[in-house]
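Slack export, channel: ligand-projects

TW: morning all. Re-posting the request from yesterday since it got buried. We need the structure predicted with the small molecule present, not the apo form. The ligand is 2'-deoxyinosine 5'-triphosphate; the SMILES is in the block with the sequence. No rush, but it would help planning for next week.
GE: picking it up
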Amino acid sequence: MKKILIATKNEGKAREFRAFFEPRDFKVVTLSELDDIPEIIESGKTFTENALIKAQSLTNALQATVVADDSGLMVDALLGEPGIYSARYAGDHDDEKNNEKLLQKLLTVPNGKRTATFHTSLVVTRVDKAPLIVEGEVSGEILRKLRGRDGFGYDPLFYLPNLGKTFAELTPDEKNEISHRGQAIKKLDEKFDDWWIDE
Ligand SMILES: O=c1nc[nH]c2c1ncn2[C@H]1C[C@H](O)[C@@H](COP(=O)(O)OP(=O)(O)OP(=O)(O)O)O1
Ligand SMILES: [Mg+2]
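GE: finished. pasting the full token output, ligand included:
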């Protein structure tokens, strides 16, 4: 059976990737299941650079096929912040504090000017092969308080006017259907088999 390592410690992301790879007969492993993985420093200047760092460093260390996701929220009124710093926005990786900081920063920004975009860069790496890179984005608005219980990260603040719901009010399938990660995964779906067999 083919095996793929998802280079993430984020369980929310890992769930979304399992749903893609497991039906394709991949055994999926995530970083939480491995010991002695060196800390990966996300030192890139773009989502894609960071995803490349995460994936390639693990392919090099373990000779494994690896998929990495670097993603984040770009808020127009904050000139694209927190962007690649989304996970570390309020210091450490704490969703609750990140959401609080975002609400604070947007306190004086009126409804109608609270537009934002989620971005994902996905990179798949394998030894002796050029990486496969895909991206996905989705637009929405930032609410004034949290709404919904599902999802992770900024999901309870990310509102889709067309649906009248936040990401945290959608089922996993509904979220995957429209989300930045879901869109990137769809592109991966289109390109993956050719990339995999192409020597
Ligand atoms: O669908 C999403 N719904 C809500 N929030 C999201 C989503 N996608 C990314 N985000 C937020 C979470 C985190 O604050 C940052 C990603 O940071 P990012 O470094 O890519 O991921 P991470 O540190 O959580 O896990 P890891 O690097 O181990 O994959 O954007
Ligand atoms: Mg990270």
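GE: first-pass observations. Helices lie at 11-21, 47-62, 95-105, 172-178, 180-197. The longest strand covers residues 115-125.
TW: perfect, thank you
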